[in-house]
């Protein structure tokens, strides 16, 4: 049956396939609302207790065969929906999802629930966490360093800090807790402003759509423009941190780790801008690139990065622009193999996926797969 399904789907056009996916997603939301509503009623009875389950969570996990995360989300949302029925309407409309409701549920009251739920409409998990931090701020966490027990996990490569940490006054943009167990990294906050370095190159905030390929730091919004970060570092990195604190005592007498991290990242971004984008405080006059050369001049890289705001410039037929900011590449709009020159008008930023897609779209999937056609980047 599965093979028949896959075979039948191959005959659908792109538009038909996407339309069906939207229809199925709408039906799935409806089924989730039905399940949550039934669960809310079940929670008012002792059925799961009489069936030998110690809690509604255990019943969902063991009798209904949900994962622990699925069970946790659904139980929390069911209890919120029993108090505030508008939750079910917003879930069915796709304005909220189970995770966002679960994040807000503990703080909802008869007085604030309507405004809070409406404010969360259409927002991602991180955006809802930031919303909660704005509505219900929490105090800064204290900085601390502690040694973790020995682990059998593979060693995490140490973070290389730049040699120069700068000398200007420190600016705190977050609060750090060093040497704690790693956790899944939420998307970096889209509300952060894009700092402009002394080199003149702007680094926009990372994309909420970015997905890490490995476990990394845990970032939690605490209050407006205040974040807690947890990360495990090696002994070598800890020694670098201690040396940085000692060397910066004249500028940061408290030895605040958050201020030192801000200095380190500022210096690192400046070095990256210089290395990857040829950023400089005193750019040289634009040179002449030899016709037919694949080389992209430094002044073109700088202009393209500023124009495209450090973000993939691919725009779909629907008008939606790709939000990706990681793994960016300089892309020839008219491919180099087809005579495209390395000019500001012909060079745009593309994420790795869209750069590869444009190559396949231009040269054909067969040639791109064999490697016969040069990449358009």
Structure commentary:
43% of the residues lie in helices and 7% in strands. It is mainly alpha-helical and 377 residues long. Helix 4 (56-62) crosses helix 5 (68-83). The model is unreliable at 156-214 (pLDDT under 50). The protein has helices at residues 2-10, 14-42, 47-50, 56-62, 68-83, 86-93, 98-104, 113-119, 125-135, 235-247, 257-277, 298-308, 352-363, 365-370, and strands spanning 175-178, 218-223, 226-231, 328-332, 347-351. The two termini are 42 Å apart. The chain is extended. The protein is built from 14 helices and five strands. A three-stranded mixed β-sheet has the order 1-3-2. A two-stranded antiparallel ribbon has the order 4-5. It folds into three domains: 2-122, no CATH class; 175-277, no CATH class; 298-370, DNA Binding (I), subunit A.
Layout of helices and strands:
Blueprint: H1 2-10, H2 14-42, H3 47-50, H4 56-62, H5 68-83, H6 86-93, H7 98-104, H8 113-119, H9 125-135, E1 175-178, E2 218-223, E3 226-231, H10 235-247, H11 257-277, H12 298-308, E4 328-332, E5 347-351, H13 352-363, H14 365-370
Neighbour order of strands in the largest sheet: 1-3-2
Pick out the low-confidence regions.
156-214
How many domains make up the 3D coordinates? 3
Total strand segments: 5
Query: Secondary-structure element order, as H and E?
Result: HHHHHHHHHEEEHHHEEHH
Strand fraction equals 5-15%
Share of helical residues? 40-55%
Q: In terms of structural class, how would the helical and strand content be classed?
A: mainly alpha
């Amino acid at each position: 049956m599965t093979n028949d399904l896959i075979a039948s789907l191959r005959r659908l056009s792109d538009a038909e396939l996407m339309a069906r996916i939207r229809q199925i997603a709408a039906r799935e939301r409806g089924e989730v609302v039905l399940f949550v509503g039934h669960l809310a009623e079940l929670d008012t009875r002792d059925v799961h207790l009489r069936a030998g389950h110690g809690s509604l969570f255990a019943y969902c996990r063991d009798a209904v065969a949900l994962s622990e995360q699925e069970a946790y989300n659904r139980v929390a949302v069911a209890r919120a929906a029993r108090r505030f029925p508008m939750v079910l309407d917003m879930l069915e409309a796709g304005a909220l999802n189970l995770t966002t409701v679960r994040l807000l549920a503990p703080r909802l009251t008869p007085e604030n629930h309507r405004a809070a739920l409406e404010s969360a409409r259409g927002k991602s998990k991180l955006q809802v966490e930031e919303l909660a931090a704005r509505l219900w701020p929490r105090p800064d966490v204290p900085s601390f360093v502690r040694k973790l027990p020995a682990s059998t996990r593979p060693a995490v490569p140490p973070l290389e800090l730049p040699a120069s940490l700068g000398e200007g006054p420190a600016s705190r943009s977050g609060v750090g807790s060093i040497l704690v167990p790693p956790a899944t990294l939420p998307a970096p906050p889209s509300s952060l402003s894009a700092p402009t370095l002394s080199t003149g190159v702007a680094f926009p905030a990372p994309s909420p759509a970015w997905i890490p390929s490995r476990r990394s730091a845990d970032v939690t919004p605490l209050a407006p423009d205040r974040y807690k970060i947890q990360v495990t570092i090696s002994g070598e990195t800890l020694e670098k941190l201690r040396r940085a604190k000692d060397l910066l005592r004249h500028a940061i007498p408290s030895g605040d780790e958050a201020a030192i991290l801000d200095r380190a990242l500022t210096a690192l971004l400046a070095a990256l801008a210089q290395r990857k984008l040829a950023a400089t405080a005193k750019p040289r006059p634009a040179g002449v690139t030899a016709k037919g050369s694949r080389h992209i001049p430094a002044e073109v890289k700088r202009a393209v990065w500023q124009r495209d705001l450090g973000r993939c410039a691919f725009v779909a037929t629907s008008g939606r622009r790709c939000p990706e900011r990681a793994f960016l590449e300089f892309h020839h709009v008219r491919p180099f193999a087809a005579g495209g020159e390395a000019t500001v008008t012909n060079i745009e930023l593309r994420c790795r996926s869209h750069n590869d897609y444009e190559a396949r779209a231009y040269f054909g999937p067969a040639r791109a797969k064999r490697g016969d056609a040069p990449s358009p980047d």
